[in-house]
Amino acid sequence: MRRTFKFVLWGVALLLVAGLGFFFFVLPGQVEAALNGVRQPPPYTASQAASELHGAIQIADLHADPLLWGRDLLKRGARGHVDIPRLDEGNVALQVFSVVTKSPQNLNIERNDDRSDDITLLAIGQRWPLRTWFSLKERALYQADRLSRMAAASENRFVLIKTKRDLARFLQRRKAEPGIVAGLLAIEGAHVLEGDPANVDVLFDAGYRMMSVAHFFDTEMGGSAHGVDKGGLTDDGREMIRRMEAKKMIVDLSHGSAAQVADVLAMATRPTVVSHTGVKGTCDNNRNLSDEQLRAIAANGGLVGLGFWETAVCGADAAAIARAQRYTADLIGIDHLALGSDFDGAVETPFDASGLIEVTEAMLAAGFTDEEIGKAMGGNQIRFLLENLPD
């Protein structure tokens, strides 16, 4: 009897160890692979005209979420959309790395509350430090530190950008060293402030240069298009915007409720961005921007980063992306058009970061000129950052 009991205990212990090993070392990768699909895997081919143009322009993407998934971005990954080698293959000069700190269960684009959070389990499963399990601000600080450590280990092939001078220096260097990649840190949702607008300063000091008021639920700072109340800016939200502008942090209108977007634009003294979105003119749903909002963002001097996933463009290929680009450029002008892929944002995309030439090809087919393509693929983004980052 005693021997049988001992065998049962050993069996339970082995099952527990196996289960924990699966949870900590296997499951997070399986979740990422399931959520961040690629409809057409590499390699990618294109016409000679697209290949020559794509190699000659500067490319910059305003939004991707690879930091959420715990991969070493200096190595070419077998899953997901973004890492430094694939950005190099896609001729991307600059990638904005956005950090997600909280995401509600049963995520949808219509109505979410803030009572649940899938990121906590992901943080535990990926063995993030204990302090990140209970603090959204600590999750952001940890992810900023991870990206900084990757840059330090990259032998100067990957560079973090914090100022205009950093970016100008990087662009000059890239003329002689094609293939190097720059990164900029951003945050999705001001819930990361944990209710205190003064935490803008903490995040700025950690290297963040862009932040949105809300993500998929309403925050203490303002309403989300996918929240419960969908309200405008709160008093704390207005203080957040003032602090961000004083620091020359870029305000991101992505996921904002109509009231919140209007409130931000009414008080903004600096241009804003929508880092990743679609437009109702080609894909009419609650995730996307109306013509009125597009015109207001353009009047503010802002940029509209168009996404690559189906909810953004109502299609599953680069042609659908180009349709949204054509509509937006015709409505507000090419100088306000940008890329906002949402790579690694729990979405399926037509290609990964190494396949951005597909967008160049589709824009040529949609009748854009070489100059217009150069602006939308990265020229506008680079200009905007050189004008609006801190000195």
TrEMBL record:
Gene Ontology terms for molecular function: metallodipeptidase activity
Transmembrane segments: none
InterPro entries, A to Z: Metal_Hydrolase, Pept_M19
GO biological process, one term: proteolysis
Name of this chain's protein: Zn-dependent dipeptidase, dipeptidase homolog
Species, as recorded: Neomesorhizobium albiziae
